[in-house]
Amino acid sequence: MKRLFAVALGVLTAIGGFVDIGDLVTNAVVGSRFGMSLAWVVVVGVVGICLYANMAGRVAAVSGRATFEIIRERLGPRAGLANLGASFLINLMTMTAEIGGIALALQLVTGIGPMLWVPLAAFAVWIVVWRAKFSQLENSAGLLGLSLIVFAVAVVLLGPDWAELGRQALLPAVPATEHPATYWFYAVALFGAAMTPYEVFFFSSGAVEEGWTRRDLGQARVNVLVGFPLGGLLSLAIAASAAIVLLPQAISVTSLSQVVLPVVQAGGVVAFCFLVVGMLAAFFGAALETTLSSGYTIAQYFGWSWGKFRRPAKAARFHLVMLVGLVIAVGILATGVDPIAVTEYSVVFSAVALPLTYIPILIIANDPDYMGDAVNGRVVNALALVYLVIIVVASLAAIPLMIITGAGA
Amino acid sequence: MGTRRIRISGALAAGLVVITAVVTGCASPAEQRTQVAEDAYAAVASAALALEVAPGTPVLATAVDDAMREVMDAETRAVELPAGPQRDTLLTALRRAQDALLLARDHGADAAAALRGARDALEEAGG
Q: What is the model's pLDDT at position B10?
């Protein structure tokens, strides 16, 4: 019974923790401009993150070490440093976007501008990272994030033309009002949002934090293979709600206040309350994960003591990196930059950096020195290679598409 | 080796800047006018929707603030367009949109009608 509860909890937190501000904004933008014609990208992205997150979790459980630690050892300090630089910068952008997202969500509830909320949000993240246990912060954010199911409820309440939504999803086409380059730009952005690198670093470091062994691999696999696809359905519901309400009125999403309108239209104040709880939990949870990931990557590369399982005094540099990261994020937001713009750029640059994250994981997962008899099987390797091609193509296409389309304008 | 790398990086960065300038500058004035009008239209439409589904709430206040920022940004871009009657029509529509948004922010009785009027004016101005 206890085992079943643990599995259920893991799956629920995986669903609730799947959506962050990158997923929320990108899916809403895509839904409001392209309808469901990019739904296939969410499916491709979810399969990819399942594949590689599962691999990273297996590496951590079998070797007892987090991905970044092994990357430096296996590929050498230079390759590791390139990986660290790109990952840390993308992670910092994502952290900035998440903290900005918390501030924007609080603005929707209070009407008070986001600049007041930014330092308070960052302070709250720091306190939780400093004081809370790893399992507490992971489970509470993930479970409260489940409130985002209100998007799926809203889609049903809005009474859409299901056949039309299905047609858009199954027979994707570039809308007449959009340029094909813009369509592909958002395909890459959506892929980057689904396969955000920090999720893998957090997942593998979390495995070490929770002391996974080979015996936990089954539960980890269920968490990923059930939780992430259900989280992907949430992403599709976000896009569908925008496609039903905003697209017919020519409202292309540029702010968080537009994202919530379909839910408020469908379910009024009650739905809005669920939505705010879900957004705050999702953004706060992702802010915690990115903050921890910034500490994980730097500390693991330099071989410092790290982890929430240690007292802060025993992992001082790990905690210092996280604090500095939060201060930088607040500094960036204090310039008045739009958090939604930061989000949009962060998902595109995530796509650019994808090979740096996923190629090393694939190499290590095939190395018997680390994995023993738990190296990748043929089927996993075949799928991983297909995804490697997709990842490299998305990475190479991201910047040219961003320039050609004026960042999707 | 290091100098060569810096040169290559510099050339790549310069190339990106040039391509960006060429791509963003190559839209015709008519296309730019349409884009400005479309962006402002979307902002006003979302404020109108917020007024309809969430009257008197912080959601409406935030949606109106966001829309106002978009419309003011659109006005800045419109001023850069070549002078002429079409630009004047667009600027008039944008100012009408700002007035309508102010009315919505102040919970004015005719805000919904004003937003509808501003939306129609922007549609016309965008061609």
A: 57
For residue A409, the tally of other CB atoms under 10 A from its CB is 11
Find the mean pLDDT for residues A360-386.
Answer: 92
CB-CB under 8 Å, B16 with A111? no
Residue A406 to residue B59, Cβ atoms within 8 A: no
Q: Which of A86, A48, A98, A106 is nearest to A343 (CA)?
A: A98
Residues in chain A with CB shorter than 8 Å from the CB of B61 are 111
Is A254 close to B43, i.e. CB distance below 8 A? yes
Chain center to CA of B30: 15
Q: Do A251 and B45 touch (CB under 8 A)?
A: yes
Q: What is the pLDDT of residue B122?
A: 94
Q: Does A245 touch chain B (CB under 8 A)?
A: yes
Q: What ipTM was assigned to the predicted interfaces of this complex?
A: 0.85
Over residues A299-318, the mean pLDDT reads 90
Mean pLDDT of chain A: 90
Please give the structure tokens belonging to residue B64.
Answer: 């109106």
- Orientation of helix A316-334 relative to helix A67-110, angle to 10°: 40
SS3 B76: helix
DSSP-H helix ranges across A132-255: 134-145, 150-157, 162-170, 180-194, 197-209, 217-222, 228-245
Residues of chain B with C-beta less than 8 angstroms from the C-beta of A257: 46, 50, 59, 62-63, 66
| Local confidence band at A13 (pLDDT 50, 70, 90 cut-offs) | low
The whole-model pTM stands at 0.90
Q: Is B103 on the interface with A (CB under 8 A)?
A: no
